[in-house]
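Sample entry (475 residues):
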Amino acid sequence: MGIRTKLVLFLLFFGFVILGALLWSNNAILHKTMLHYVDQRDQQRLERLKNNLEVYLNYHEPINQIEDISPRAWRDLMKVSHRSDFSQTPYAMPLLIDRPRSRRFRPPHPLDDFERRVSLIDLNNRVVHGAEEGVATILLPVMMEDEKVAIIGYYPLHELVEQADIEFAESQMQVLWFGAVLVTLLVLILLWPLANHFLVPIQELTQAMKSLAQGKLSQRLIAKRRDEFGQLQRDYNHLASTLEAAQNSRNQWIADISHELRTPLTILNGTLEAMTDGIRPITPENLQVMQQEVDVLKRLIEDLYQLSLSDVGAMRYEMRHTDLTGLLNLAIDYFSEKAKNKGLLIYKQEINENAAVYGDATRLQQLIHNLMQNAIDYTESSDQQTGRIEVSLIDNSKHWLLRIEDSAPSIAKQDLQKLTERFYRGESSRNRETGGAGLGLAIVSQIVAAHNGELNLSQSDLGGLKVDVLLEKQK
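Predicted structure, serialized as tokens:
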């Protein structure tokens, strides 16, 4: 069974439940309303009967006791009380009650439902005329010369008994059922396009997910809706874009690794073949070239290993009180000789002597070493101008600001944020002959993120790159 059919059937079932409840409640309300209407109508007639009986007693001189009222007079009083009230026109009473009858016998008019539920009761609670069964719930006193002489008792309805009332209630129920059938047909007509309104985006998303599972990452959905389905379509587009970018990054990653490994291996292989064939002699200089390429491979493999650990969350961090100033001074002393051999100078600018952070000393040392090595690798020196590297450790409110900036060459502004990407070097001036594999700043970014810090890259006033690392102070 398709989702469209399920949706339509569910909505129909829900609608039928609501409709059934409405019909049942309307039937109960209609029944109660009709009973209330009939009861109000009967009470008005009962009031007229009371008034007419009082007029009859006050203006009918032969009547001294309530028992003297004849059954015929009682029936006549109940009949005329259906429409007439003689309390304002008592002179008309003799014309209608106890008027002379024709000699031809006529059977008494049958009592209606109201008349069968009304009794005339004397002061001793004895029924003089009318119904004798049950207990009257409404009692109206009958007055004669300001003295209570009798009681009119009334037994309210619990069910409709008049044919007109029953037919009216049945006609109303027929109207309700007709309306229910009409509403059901309208719902069926409206539900099908409504089901499509909800089903079409689900079908589109299902097909798109199938394509995604088959590796077709370029498919996108048109997200024009503003409801939850539209948000789901936008989320799918974001997921597809992320997966496509990840796949492209993975392909580029594999290509870059292959290139980075191929270059030193090619040099090593060529050197070894030349030595084997006797083309190049086995000299300390040639062995030194091979050693340098082995060092490049070793560093590349170590960087890849560190990044893989960070990606899977296996890079261990032992957080403790760490002297950031001491780590920075050790790194400056270590790299000063390397910088000098390349014709560069390292300058200590503002170095705070009490910089303490809560972090992993080994990883923070790796961070500083990567930044220093990156500055040395990508800073040039010439006879006209000596390369310059400036190091600062500044108190920046709640953070320590570690800043390392170097002189030319620089990098374009649009490429600054790409420097933390793996194997990215920017323009041709920053290539693998002068620098590394392009993994140093990627590792730095991972370490900074693990310490809840912030890494900012910008162009330096010295002409090169400025790296700012914000780390929280020790609390």
